[in-house]
């Protein structure tokens, strides 16, 4: 299954390679989740769907653009064809494709793959078998109060708690691509990544990254403090706090 | 002069290429500005100094590591060998070398060059002759209240005003490399970049970026609202707000 995900992510890479991003910023439709679809998202999604069809459509598909495609399969492929669309369009080098395979919710995701579309790094995870970047096993960072790096979504739609938590780290950053930011926590670069804003973040942005994080030793919670789970659905959204080491939570109370 | 700066930045690129960043994180000395020097900074600085020596040391040097080197020249090269050292060491693909040439203060800087050491983009500026990225003329972004992107330094040492301003943009980001973030404002990707923290930002981080920003149509202010100037010196620091379009300031009052 990881091989198939690799191939799907490669298809996106090839479809976008050499394209002038400025030409891909026209809004072409309203996505299944209610946010406008950019041409770049559509091109990437089509590359995935075509590649999947070549393999006989072995998976159902859940996508931010197309919604649910029922191929009569047992498992569902949850895709964010381009995570960090804004970055891609304006030339900020942080965007990715995110692919996850599961049955009906975050908690049963079996496989996840995130590909950094600028630098080529590939993050993969298989439930119970660990998380890897380019073959190297990932392990989250132990909490060290003097050296914290928090990734916090900010801006006009962020909650007061977001600003509160952003003020508690040695370094606070925001890169604007959720799957890559979860990968930064999974790989021990950052201690925490949170989004607490309106609108909340979409299931398709999180599905692969959550498995990656958990397989690397981290955990993700909703803003009530419960372990995060989300049903598969095109309009599913949630806020969250993801940490590499649970002790980070004690440090921000 | 721009050719010389190109060559110096190329020397840094070559010196760091293929190095394992994890091996370069030992703190080896206390820099002239009072912050610890990492091996990566020292390697990059040496590459610049050696290349400059080959040219007969036509410039004095002001560096965060070495302090002031008086070569009896009329002009001074202000260098930040690696801007975004933390990013480089932990594998975040966002760091640069920043080079500027002037006499005694920010306001008389004649030439600036910033090279993105990950992606290779080169930003250059010559006073009165414009700012360019890879040969393309740069122009800051016009203010559009619905589409603002602010770059704001946050974390435990940031001022309350930083959080206040971070809450007013459609998108708030922080990438952790001052010269590249000034280049993002100069090139119209972002509307504003500010650092208001303790310790403040160093002259060497700003010297090239400020000329780039001004030549692209933007301006930079200290936190009293005056146009920013800073005398050349190894311990010079300041807080600042840089904008592409002055109307951005009206939007955040």
Q: If you compute it from the alpha carbons, what radius of gyration of chain A comes out, rounded to the nearest whole angstrom? A: 17 Å
As a percent range, the share of helical residues of chain A equals: 25-40%
**Quaternary structure:** homodimer
Major sheet of chain A: order of its strands? Answer: 4-3-5-6-7-8-9-10
- Choose one word for the global shape of chain A: globular
Order of helices and strands of chain A: HEEHEEEHEEEEEEHEHEEHEEEH
Total number of domains of chain A:
2
User: What's the tally of helices of chain A?
Assistant: 7
**What is the count of β-strands of chain A?**
17
The two chains with the largest interface, and their residue counts, are: A-B, 29 and 30 residues
Name the CATH class of the largest domain in chain A.
Alpha Beta
């Amino acid at each position: 299954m990881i091989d198939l995900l690799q191939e799907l992510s490669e298809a996106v890479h090839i479809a976008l390679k050499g394209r002038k991003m400025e030409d891909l910023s026209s809004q072409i439709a309203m996505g299944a989740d209610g946010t406008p679809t950019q041409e770049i998202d559509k091109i990437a999604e089509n590359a995935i769907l075509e590649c999947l069809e070549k393999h006989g459509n072995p998976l159902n598909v859940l996508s931010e653009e197309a919604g649910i495609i029922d191929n009569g399969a047992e498992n569902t492929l949850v895709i964010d064809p381009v995570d960090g669309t804004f970055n891609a369009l304006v030339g900020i080098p942080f965007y990715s494709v995110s692919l996850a395979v599961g049955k009906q919710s975050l908690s049963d995701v079996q496989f996840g793959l995130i590909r950094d579309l600028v630098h080529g790094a590939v993050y993969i995870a298989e439930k119970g078998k660990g998380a890897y970047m380019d073959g190297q096993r990932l392990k989250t960072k132990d909490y060290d109060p003097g050296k914290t790096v928090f990734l916090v979504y900010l801006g006009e739609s962020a909650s007061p708690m977001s600003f509160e938590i952003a003020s508690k780290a040695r370094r606070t950053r925001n890169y604007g691509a959720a799957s890559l930011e979860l990968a930064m926590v999974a790989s021990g670069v950052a201690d925490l990544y949170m989004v607490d804003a309106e609108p909340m973040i979409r299931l398709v942005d999180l599905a692969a990254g959550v498995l990656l994080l958990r397989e690397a030793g981290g955990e993700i919670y909703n803003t009530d403090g419960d372990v995060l789970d989300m049903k598969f659905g095109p309009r599913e959204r949630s806020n969250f706090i993801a940490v590499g080491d649970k002790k980070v939570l004690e440090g921000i109370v």
